[in-house]
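User: Teach me something about this protein's shape.
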Amino acid sequence: MTEIIKGLNIEIVNVGLIGTNCYIVYNDNKEAIIIDPGADADKIESSVERLGVKPVAVLLTHGHFDHILAVNDIANHYNISVYVGANEERLLNDATLNGSKQYRRDCIVDNYKVLNDNEEIVLGGINIEVIFTPGHTEGSVCYYIDDAKVIFTGDTLFRESIGRTDLATGDDKLIIESLHKLMELDDEIIVYPGHSDSSTIGYEKINNPFM
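Assistant: First, the predicted structure itself:
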């Protein structure tokens, strides 16, 4: 399913046993960013081929297994770089902490570039702001695209809910602080979470009991 928001194309590919939202994001130049390729590399690659786009980077919102299991396959297949927020290295480099060992996958991501809070990057002609939102994990980040007024929140913010904090490196206090940070954003911004349906910041301010 592809949604078009102010000229930005967002293909949602549901992957893995837990139903992770992997996003293929691109504009008119057909250079795509792949966000959270959590599993099913073949399915993601088929979507890329169908869309006729050229992947230029992988962005990770955090390092839990259901968001990274296809990272190495995708990055190697397209020979592209992987980006992740600072402080997430522990999860990426430890199959026990990121949960993949539990599913007998032993996934480790050891080739990536680290992004800093408030850093602005341009990938595929798309301007992206990195927003640190620790709590679900210590290195969780959101990716905000101002031109289209969309934000990819990973497992920090869901429609009417938030991510768990009882897994490795999670923190109850930090995730609430991160939610307060997101509440400062404009109401019309569309939220694309790591699982389930999209929302808006304005809707979550009113309907999310954690906000």
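Now, about its shape. DSSP finds six helices and 15 strands in the chain. The chain has a mean pLDDT of 95. If you'd like, I can walk through any region in more detail.
User: That's plenty for now, thanks!
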